[in-house]
Write a structure and sequence with these properties.
mainly alpha, 6 helices, three-stranded antiparallel β-sheet, Arc Repressor Mutant, subunit A
């Protein structure tokens, strides 16, 4: 089955060699980077990247609290996956789930003091990993322009 563009669309042009190179490198990066960052945290902190991201997002919100559905969206997880992950973090004392005051069906995740301490403990490992696997390869690049481009790609869905 061949995909044909709608009649009003501009004709599709093949990628230039430079564009093809970027597309392939981005594809490889999307497959590898998360696993690499996760492996560093698991090895040095016995913490997954998903756990780190949950604690980080909670630490950045007012009252260290987020609605479970918003937290799932922020971490690019399903609500059921977030529920399981929150359960593990709750059993470790790193977060609490409390009913939403204005919606009895919803729950909020609240970062505990122990969760904040755990995040602060893991932060140097994650920072070193990000520097080693990302920023050490971007020396001399315009990071503001790169950030804008990456954000545009992430929101163009």
């Amino acid at each position: 089955m061949s995909a044909t563009p709608p009649p009003s669309a501009a004709p599709l042009l093949p990628l230039s060699p430079a564009e093809e190179s970027v597309a392939r490198a981005m594809g490889r990066l999307m497959q590898v980077l998360g696993r690499t960052l996760d492996a560093d945290l698991e090895r040095e902190q016995r913490m997954s990247l998903s756990e780190y991201n949950v604690l980080r997002h909670l630490s950045e919100h007012a009252d260290r609290r987020m609605r479970m559905s918003e937290l799932a969206a922020a971490c690019d997880m399903s609500l059921s996956g977030m529920t399981r992950l929150a359960g593990r973090l709750e059993s470790g004392g790193f977060l609490q789930r409390v009913p939403c005051p204005n919606d009895a069906r919803g729950a909020n995740a609240v970062l505990t003091d122990a969760g904040l301490a755990r995040l602060e403990q893991a932060w140097p490992t994650h920072l070193a990993s990000i520097r080693r696997h990302v920023f050490d390869h971007l020396d001399g690049m315009d990071l503001c322009t790169l950030a804008r481009a990456l954000n545009a790609m992430a929101t163009d869905t």
